[in-house]
Amino acid sequence: MIRFGRGITVFVIQKYRRCGTKNLGYQILHFVQDDDRKSMNIKHPIILGSKSPRRKRLLRAMGYHFTVMASNFDEKSIRHGHPAKLTVRLAKAKAKELLPKIKKESILITSDQVVLWKKEIREKPANQKELEYFLSTAHQSPAITYASVYVINTKSKKFAVGVDVAGIHFKKIPANVIKKLLKKKYLYTMAGGFTIENPLIKKYIKKIIAEHESIIGLPQNLTHKLIKKLAYPNTLLLTSSGAPIAGFLRQIFNKDLQKIKIGWITTAKKGVTDWGYLRRHKARMKKLKMDYEEIDIDGKSGQKLYQMLKEKDAIHVEGGNPFYLLKSARKSGLKEVINKLLNDGVIYIGSSAGTYITCPTIEMSYWSDRVRPDYGIKNLAGMNLIPFVIKAHYKPGDKIKYQNKIKKLKYLAKFINDSQAILVKNRKWKILNVRHHSN
């Protein structure tokens, strides 16, 4: 574990036995600090604090919508002998320089990269002589790239940081090729004086270990994890029906709909006979080219479920029979899995039964004229992920119809119809209504 000072803890996971040999390569992962929970904004603007065309391209490829602000921070003003600490301090300093210029609450992303060659830290070459030295000696030892990503909420100052480490082995680059490369102005803006995207350099690459995007300048997996942690901490989207889910996702995610990875849990269908609602929802997702994986939690351990769901952006627990779903959730340890995922910035989406089980109790689920099997469930305690209870499929007159039952409730009651959702973020809530889109 490496500590960078107050508020930053970076956990190191060694993936390979040694660094600098054929088994080279490991990754330093992130953590977050600070606990300001005042913000209830649904969708934060994203700002990339870099003028690098490569970082812009990589972030765009991840599906994010963002604007760009270039930092003018003097990178030579910060020195450190440890490459991971150096690159984190530089990324943090770039963010600090930009923060006073940003007036609207946003998610700011800054990044930096250095290259470790033997025990020498290689940053951007200062001149032609240094670039020539970098290129002519590249084959003598693997180049280890340290790419930091620093993500901060510009209002709360809550942040997340991480460093991704990758490795690259070069063949010897001939002098005549180096001569041509010295004329490439953009190589003077690259840590280590190289880019794996240059066609001349590509010919002399033996091996790349770890994520290519990390070497290019913005590790995608790490960046995505950090954004999720900052933008969507402990966030639940609780609906009455799965029909308007796509519209609600557009209100929450600053990302292309097709790039949102969804774990679609349909276990509650086993407690009902009519699966038409699932077929309709699946048809809508296919039409919108949404990236979803249908998952049944029955027969799976909590550990297995976490492994299946941890890389998702959202977990959608579908409707059906809430008693069957609650029974399956208890058996699989779903509550513990969901709590862990919420902390990671994975959004929980509930529809009908999937909404009911998030409440302290599911008793409002049987406030209807419909009779359904209870699968032996006598204890109606839900997963208690929210501090109130919800009545889904609300119809005008329900509050009067159920007024005596409402008076007996121990919890605050919320009512939503099939065109509404409740967004819960850090246990604060607000009602969302459907916004219509052309597709």
- CATH topology description of the largest domain: Rossmann fold
What ranges have pLDDT less than 50 throughout 5 or more consecutive residues? 1-39
Number of helices: 15
The radius of gyration computed from the alpha-carbon positions, rounded to a whole number of angstroms, is 25 Å
**How would you state the average pLDDT, rounded?**
87
| Helix percentage | 25-40%
Overall shape: it is elongated
* Strand residues, percent: 15-25%
The CATH homologous superfamily of the largest domain is named Class I glutamine amidotransferase (GATase) domain
CATH class of the largest domain: Alpha Beta
* Total domain units: 2
What is the CATH architecture descriptor of the largest domain? 3-Layer(aba) Sandwich
Which structural class do the helices and strands define? alpha/beta
Termini gap? 47 Å
Per DSSP E runs of 2 or more residues, the count of β-strands stands at 19
- Report on the biggest sheet: 10 strands, mixed
Q: What would your notes on this structure say?
A:
It is built from 15 helices and 19 strands. The protein is an alpha/beta fold and about 450 residues long. The protein has 2 domains: about 45-225, Maf protein (Alpha-Beta Complex), CATH 3.90.950; about 235-435, Class I glutamine amidotransferase (GATase) domain (Rossmann fold, 3-Layer(aba) Sandwich), CATH 3.40.50. Strands 1, 2, 3, 4, 5, 6, 7, 8, 9 and 10 form a 10-stranded mixed sheet that branches. Strands 13-12-14-15-11-18-19 form a 7-stranded mixed sheet. A two-stranded parallel ribbon has the order 16-17. It is elongated, with a radius of gyration of 25 Å. The chain starts with a strand and ends in a 6-residue tail after the last strand. Mean pLDDT is about 85; it is low at about 1-40.
